[in-house]
């Protein structure tokens, strides 16, 4: 327990000490939120979709979580390169605990980042439908954060350096984001698009947030949480198996 | 005295390349053991296998009676290691690095606090305990790593070129501390270094490896006698520069051999 706590604390300290990173990683979600939210707002409304800013905000919150989470996981590569990973790998504790502790820390950071995007959205006019449902929304946000941090850790366990990072960015993270229904409704899309969205775990995070924050679910909140929980559990198991296999 | 490290027929291949080749040796409990060899001889690979970071291709290892492949946790509890390259978290303070290590090794809180203070004072970093490690000089980082490696009172201390790039003052400081620790606490020390005079002064016994193979093992005095040289450095060069690489003689080796034949120093 202590071990998990100290690893969690380390991730948090590293995050809070890097103010540039905290603010920097808010830039992209903010840009998407404002440019797309206000840019497409009038067309969306004319087409009968309602308030686009309300619609897109949960999607952008999910995006903030996705990027921070995967990056927190992948950050382990820096530990490998700067040597700190060795220190944790020779310690007399199970690697599963180590992986879980740092994943929990990374997920907490990603969750905080998601909260920050939510606060920004509220500042620009976003209104959650009900305060009572906020805790449920937070649960969905944390699960999403945990899922994708574990995913990042799993990837980082198999990577030697940051060379492959652009590859992951463009072929994994961007598609996850753009094909998740975070920017557009899934209703009435070509079957290919809805099928892809259905196998994209981020879709369920976005959907759960939309269900709780603005009332407009595609899969249904129960399905969202079921899929998120199962995927998160699988990813943590996979991540810790890959992490345990690391040799230096 | 009984042995605390036992290595039998240890081999590690990376594809076609054999980094460690059928290596066998043992280290006695409480001794200071120097593991020497030119760059790329297989020293670090061997240490990685001894410390559970790398699995051997074949062969057997016993550390304090345990097997690093199947009893990783027991083995990990028994040693401390100061790596060849830095392994601190730069974004944490000196104290936090120590604290992190102590928790990771399950050192109980009051003991942990006391030892952190004790060891940080020994390496003269107590005044700087709340500074981020990224502001430390190379020597300070090294000292901190040594303090950290000792925190959980290991039975065996691995030092992989701990003094590389340090000034003579810091080197002396570190070695006299390691020596005192070995005397006082009976910690077995397994060290590698390229500074032969350090190995000569510190080690009870010396092993020399090259191309992954054990070339010689014994005391520094035995080495000098066997190679008819006056310093361990000359003995080392005689062992690794001439005798062994003679089968693939290059210009430099040929010249050394020639000079030695005429009684010169290389």
Write structural notes for this entry:
The complex is a heterodimer of chains A (248) and B (266). By secondary structure, chain A is an all-alpha fold. Chain A has one domain (2-244). Helices cover 77% and strands 0% of the residues of chain A. Chain A is built from twelve helices and no strands. Chain A has helices at 2-17, 19-39, 41-46, 52-74, 76-82, 84-89, 95-123, 134-157, 165-178, 191-199, 201-213, 221-244. In chain A, helix 1 (2-17) crosses helix 7, helix 2 packs antiparallel against helix 4 and helix 4 (52-74) runs parallel beside helix 8 (134-157). Chain A is globular and about 60 Å long. By secondary structure, chain B is of the alpha/beta class. Chain B has two domains: 3-218, Rossmann fold, CATH 3.40.50; 221-266, no CATH class. Chain B contains ten helices and nine strands. Chain B has helices spanning 43-50, 72-78, 94-104, 109-122, 138-150, 168-185, 196-202, 220-227, 232-243, 251-261; strands at residues 3-14, 17-28, 32-36, 58-63, 79-82, 156-160, 188-192, 205-210, 213-218. In chain B, the strands form two sheets. In chain B, strands 5-6-7-3-8-9 form a six-stranded mixed beta sheet, with helices on both faces. The longest helix of chain B has 18 residues, at 168-185. Chain B starts with a strand and ends in a 5-residue tail after the last helix. The chains are: A mainly alpha (248), B alpha/beta (266). The A-B interface holds A 2-3, 5-6, 10, 13-14, 17-18, 79, 82-94, 247-248 and B 48, 51-55, 73, 76-77, 79, 81, 83, 85-92, 96, 99-101, 103-106, 132. Chain A: This is Transport permease protein. Chain A: Keywords: Cell membrane, Membrane, Transmembrane, Transmembrane helix, Transport. Chain A: It comes from Candidatus Uhrbacteria bacterium GW2011_GWC2_41_11. Chain A: Residues 20-246 form the ABC transmembrane type-2 domain. Chain A: It is found in: Cell membrane; Membrane. Chain B: Pfam families: ABC_tran.
């Amino acid at each position: 327990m202590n071990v998990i706590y100290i690893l969690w604390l380390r991730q948090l300290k590293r995050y809070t000490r890097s103010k540039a990173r905290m603010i920097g990683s808010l830039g992209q979600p903010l840009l998407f939120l404002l440019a797309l939210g206000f840019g497409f707002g009038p067309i969306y409304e004319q087409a009968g979709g309602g308030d686009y800013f309300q619609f897109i905000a949960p999607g952008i919150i999910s995006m903030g979580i996705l990027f921070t989470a995967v990056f927190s996981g992948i950050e382990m590569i820096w530990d490998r390169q700067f040597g700190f990973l060795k220190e944790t790998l020779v310690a007399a504790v199970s690697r599963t605990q180590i992986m879980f502790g740092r994943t929990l820390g990374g997920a907490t950071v990603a969750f905080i980042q998601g909260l920050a995007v939510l606060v920004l959205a509220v500042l620009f006019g976003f209104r959650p439908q009900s305060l009572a449902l906020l805790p449920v929304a937070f649960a969905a946000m944390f699960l999403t954060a945990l899922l994708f941090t574990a995913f990042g850790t799993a990837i980082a366990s198999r990577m030697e350096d940051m060379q492959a990072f652009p590859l992951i960015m463009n072929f994994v993270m961007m598609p996850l984001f753009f094909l998740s229904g975070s920017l557009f409704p899934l209703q009435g899309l070509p079957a290919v698009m809805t099928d892809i969205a259905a196998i994209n775990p981020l879709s369920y995070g976005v959907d759960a947030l939309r269900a709780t924050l603005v009332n407009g679910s595609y899969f249904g909140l129960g399905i969202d949480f079921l899929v998120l929980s199962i995927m998160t559990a699988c990813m943590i198991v996979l991540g810790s198996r890959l992490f345990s296999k690391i040799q230096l | 005295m009984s042995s605390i490290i036992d290595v039998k027929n240890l081999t590690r291949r990376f594809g076609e390349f054999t980094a460690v080749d059928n290596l066998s040796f043992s280290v006695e409990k409480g001794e200071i053991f120097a593991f020497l060899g030119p760059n790329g001889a297989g020293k670090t690979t061997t240490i990685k296998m001894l410390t559970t970071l790398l699995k051997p291709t074949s062969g057997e290892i016993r550390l304090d009676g345990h097997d690093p492949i199947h009893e990783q946790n027991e083995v990990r509890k028994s040693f401390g290691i100061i790596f060849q390259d830095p392994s601190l978290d730069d974004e944490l303070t000196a104290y936090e690095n120590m604290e992190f290590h102590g928790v990771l090794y399950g050192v109980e809180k009051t003991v942990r606090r006391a030892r952190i203070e004790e060891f940080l004072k020994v390496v003269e970093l107590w005044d700087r305990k709340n500074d981020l490690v990224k502001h430390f000089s190379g020597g300070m980082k090294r000292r901190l790593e040594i303090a950290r490696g000792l925190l959980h009172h290991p039975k065996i201390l691995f030092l992989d070129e701990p003094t590389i790039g340090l000034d003579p003052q810091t080197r002396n400081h570190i070695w006299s501390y390691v020596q005192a620790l070995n005397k006082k606490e009976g910690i077995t020390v397994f060290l590698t270094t390229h500074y032969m005079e350090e190995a000569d002064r510190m080690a009870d016994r010396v092993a020399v490896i090259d191309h992954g193979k054990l070339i010689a093992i014994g005391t520094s005095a035995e080495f000098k006698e066997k190679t008819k040289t006056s310093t361990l450095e000359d003995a080392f060069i005689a062992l690794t520069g001439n005798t062994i690489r003679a089968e693939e003689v290059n210009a430099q080796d040929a010249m050394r051999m020639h000079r030695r034949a005429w009684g010169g120093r290389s």
